[in-house]
C-alpha cells in the first residue's frame, strides 16, 4: 500500500542484513588473498604490517598480503571503499584474522580428508617426529587408505602436526591413539597397519610404539619404512674400507670447491675447457643421511673428473692459502684405489636406484617393493656366482684404467703390502684387477645381498599368503595359505565362504592370459567387483594400505619449515 512504512524492527533487520552482506563482500577478497599466498608459498608478513592500510605505496615494506590487498583495491570498488571507510576494529586485515583464515582452511582440508578416510574400508597410520625450526618437537601424522569410489585411488594424506614433549614410547603411542579418537577415526574396525622409522622407541617389539598399539589393535601390523631400510643397506654395503675411504675423499673434494669461492670459480672455468659438453657447472653436495641421494653427486663428480684434477693441480702450485689442501686432495685422487672405489660405488647406486625411485611413488605397495628387492638380489647372486663377477668387474676396471691413464696419467697398481698386516686385506692375487675385485667388488656385492635379504625379509610369511590373491598368483590350491590371513577376514565371513569366493576369483583370472592380467594393485582393485568379491576386495585393500615408507610424513616436515617462515608472526 502506498505510503506504508516499515516498523522499527524491520528497518533494523534490513540494516543488519545489508551490513552482513557488506562485511562478507569485504572479507571475501581477504580470504582469497590469504589462500593465494598459501598456494604460492608467499610470506604474508612484512616489517610494518599493523595498523590501518594505506592505499598509497608505503615507505617501508608491509608484507605481500597487504601489498596484494592494496593492488586488488585499485581494481575492486567494494574493497576500495571498505579499506577507506572501515572502522579500525573491523578491517579484517590484521594478523589475527589472517591466522584465523589459515586455521579455518586447515580445518576444511582436514574434514575433507577425514570424510574420505571414514568411507574407506581400512587404513594405516604413518607417523614421524622431529624438532622444527622454532624448537618445538612436532609429531606428523598421515593416513594411508584406498578411496571408496568407482575408480579407487591409493592415498597418503597428511592430517596435521601435533606438538609433543614426552618422547617415551608410552606417551607417543597414547598421543597417536588420542589423536585418532579426537578425529573420530574408527580404530577398532579399520586400523590395519602402522608405519614408522626404525628407532627403538617406535619399532621396539616389546615396549615400542608399534607394540603398544598392536597390543590394543592386533590387526595393526607394523612395517619399517622401506626407504630407511634401503638407506641402511647402502650404509652397511659402502662400509668396505676402500669404498669408505674413496667416498671420504670425494666428500672432501666436493666441500673444498663448494665452500671456497675462488676454487669454485676456477673449477667452472676448467669445466668449460675440459668438459665442454657437460651441463654441470659445479659439484653437487653429498647428502649426509640418504645414501641413494648421493648418486647424482657421484655421477656429477665422475663426469667432471677431467676438470677437477687440473684445477687441483693448478691450485696446489699457486701461492694461495688453500694450496696445501688442494695438494693433499690431489694426492688422494691420484691413487688407483680411489678411481676403483668410486666406480664400484657408482655401479651399486645404479643397481639400487630403481628401487629407491619406486619407494617414492605414491602408488607403491609393499609386495611390489619386496618383489623388486628380490629382483635386485637375484641379479646380484647371478653376478656373484661363477665367472660373472669377473666379467662385470672387468668392465668397471677397464673404465678405471682408462680414467687413470688418460686423465690421471698413472697406472693402477696394488697398494703396498706388508708381511704383518692387521687392517688391510691381503688376498692372493695375480694382477691389480684380481686384487681390487677381491677386496672391493666382491665384499660390496656380498654385503649388499646379505643386507637386502635381512632388512627386506620382515613380514615375509604374511606377504606370501596375501600375494595369493593377486591375479598373477591365483591358483585354487593356494586356499590353504589363506588361513594366515584369518585375522583380517574372520569378523566378516567364515573360512569356507572365503575359500569359495577365492575359487571364483581364481576362475576369473585363470581364463585370462597372464600377460593380460593387471599387475598394479590399484588396477586390480578396479577389476574386483565389491558386491561379488567383497572379502577379496577387502584383502586387496589391506595389502594396498600397508605402509611402505614414511616419505609423506618426512615431506610434511619440509613444508612445515616453510610454513613457519610463511605464515607465523
Topology:
Layout lengths: L7 H32 L24 H10 L3 H9 L9 H25 L3 E9 L5 E10 L7 E10 L5 H15 L3 H4 E6 L3 H4 L5 H8 L4 E4 L1 H12 L3 H19 L1 H14 L19 H23 L6 H11 L2 H24 L6 H19 L3 H21 L23 H24 L4 H7 L28 H16 L10 H7 L6 H12 L5 H16 L3
Parallel strand pairs: 1-4, 4-5
Antiparallel strand pairs: 1-2, 2-3
Helix pairs in contact: 1-2, 1-4, 2-3, 5-8, 9-14, 9-17, 10-11, 10-13, 10-14, 11-12, 12-13, 12-14, 14-15, 14-16, 14-17, 15-17, 16-17, 20-21
Task: Walk me through this protein's architecture.
With 569 residues, the protein is of the alpha/beta class. The chain has 4 domains: 17-93, no CATH class; 109-224 and 550-566, 2-Layer Sandwich (Nucleotidyltransferase, domain 5), CATH 3.30.420; 232-455, no CATH class; 460-545, no CATH class. The protein has 22 helices and 5 strands. Strand 2 (137-146) and strand 3 (154-163) form a beta hairpin. It starts with 7 loop residues before the first helix and ends with a helix.
Structural class: alpha/beta
| SS summary, helix count | 22
pLDDT < 50 runs, ≥5 residues = 561-569
Order of helices and strands: HHHHEEEHHEHHEHHHHHHHHHHHHHH
The coarse silhouette is flat
The total beta strand count reads 5
Biggest sheet, spatial arrangement of strands: 3-2-1-4-5
Give a quick account of the main beta sheet: strands, pairing sense, barrel closure: 5 strands, mixed
What is the residue-averaged pLDDT?
A: 86
Amino acid at each position: 500500500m502506498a505510503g506504508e512504512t516499515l516498523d522499527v524492527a524491520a528497518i533494523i533487520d534490513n540494516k543488519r542484513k545489508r551490513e552482513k552482506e557488506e562485511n562478507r563482500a569485504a572479507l571475501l577478497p581477504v580470504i582469497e588473498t590469504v589462500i593465494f599466498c598459501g598456494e604460492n608459498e608467499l610470506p604474508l608478513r612484512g616489517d610494518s604490517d599493523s595498523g590501518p592500510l594505506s592505499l598509497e605505496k608505503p615507505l617501508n615494506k608491509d608484507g605481500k598480503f597487504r601489498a596484494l590487498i592494496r593492488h586488488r583495491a585499485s581494481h575492486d570498488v567494494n574493497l576500495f571503499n571498505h579499506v577507506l571507510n572501515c572502522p579500525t576494529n573491523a578491517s579484517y586485515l590484521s594478523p589475527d584474522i589472517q591466522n584465523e583464515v589459515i586455521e579455518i582452511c586447515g580445518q576444511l582440508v582436514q574434514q575433507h580428508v577425514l570424510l574420505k578416510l571414514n568411507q574407506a574400508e581400512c587404513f594405516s597410520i604413518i607417523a614421524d617426529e622431529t624438532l622444527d625450526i622454532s624448537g618445538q618437537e612436532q609429531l606428523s601424522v598421515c593416513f594411508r587408505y584406498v578411496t571408496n569410489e568407482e575408480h579407487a585411488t591409493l592415498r597418503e594424506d597428511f592430517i596435521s602436526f601435533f606438538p609433543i614433549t614426552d618422547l617415551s614410547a608410552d606417551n607417543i603411542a597414547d598421543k597417536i591413539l588420542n589423536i585418532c579418537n579426537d578425529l573420530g577415526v574408527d580404530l577398532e574396525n579399520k586400523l590395519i597397519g602402522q608405519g614408522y622409522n626404525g628407532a627403538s622407541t617406535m619399532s621396539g617389539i616389546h615396549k615400542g610404539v608399534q607394540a603398544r598399539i598392536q597390543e590394543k589393535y592386533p590387526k595393526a601390523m607394523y612395517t619399517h619404512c622401506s626407504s630407511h631400510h634401503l638407506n641402511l643397506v647402502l650404509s652397511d654395503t659402502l662400509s668396505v674400507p676402500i669404498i669408505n675411504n674413496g667416498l671420504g675423499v670425494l666428500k672432501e673434494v666436493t666441500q673444498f670447491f663448494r665452500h671456497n669461492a675462488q676454487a669454485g670459480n676456477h673449477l667452472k672455468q676448467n669445466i668449460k675447457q675440459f668438459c665442454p659438453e657437460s651441463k654441470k657447472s659445479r659439484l653437487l653436495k653429498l647428502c649426509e643421511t640418504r645414501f641413494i641421494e648421493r648418486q647424482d653427486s657421484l655421477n656429477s663428480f665422475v663426469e667432471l673428473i677431467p676438470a677437477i684434477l687440473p684445477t687441483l693441480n693448478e691450485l696446489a702450485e699457486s701461492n694461495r692459502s688453500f694450496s696445501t689442501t688442494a695438494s693433499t686432495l690431489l694426492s688422494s685422487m691420484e691413487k688407483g684405489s680411489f678411481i676403483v672405489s668410486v666406480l664400484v660405488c657408482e655401479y651399486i647406486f645404479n643397481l639400487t636406484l630403481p628401487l629407491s625411485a619406486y619407494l617414492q611413488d605414491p602408488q607403491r605397495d609393499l609386495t611390489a617393493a619386496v618383489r623388486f628387492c628380490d629382483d635386485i638380489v637375484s641379479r646380484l647372486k647371478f653376478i656373484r656366482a661363477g665367472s660373472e663377477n669377473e666379467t662385470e668387474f672387468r668392465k668397471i676396471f677397464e673404465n678405471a684404467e682408462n680414467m687413470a691413464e688418460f686423465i690421471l696419467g698413472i697406472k693402477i697398481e696394488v697398494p703396498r703390502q706388508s708381511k704383518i698386516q692387521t687392517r688391510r686385506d691381503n688376498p692372493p692375487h695375480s694382477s691389480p684387477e684380481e686384487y681390487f675385485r677381491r677386496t672391493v667388488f666382491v665384499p660390496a656385492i656380498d654385503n649388499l645381498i646379505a643386507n637386502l635379504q635381512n632388512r627386506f625379509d620382515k613380514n615375509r610369511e604374511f606377504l606370501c599368503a596375501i600375494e595369493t590373491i593377486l591375479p598373477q598368483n591365483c591358483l585354487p590350491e593356494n586356499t590353504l595359505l589363506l588361513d594366515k590371513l584369518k585375522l583380517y577376514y574372520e569378523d566378516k565371513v567364515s573360512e569356507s565362504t572365503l575359500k569359495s569366493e577365492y575359487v571364483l576369483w581364481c576362475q576369473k583370472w585363470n581364463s585370462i592370459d597372464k600377460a593380460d592380467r593387471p599387475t598394479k594393485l590399484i588396477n586390480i582393485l578396479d577389476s574386483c567387483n565389491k558386491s561379488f568379491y567383497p572379502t577379496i576386495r577387502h584383502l586387496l585393500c589391506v595389502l594396498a594400505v600397508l605402509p611402505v615408507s614414511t616419505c609423506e610424513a618426512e615431506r610434511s616436515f619440509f613444508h612445515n619449515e616453510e610454513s613457519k617462515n610463511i605464515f607465523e608472526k
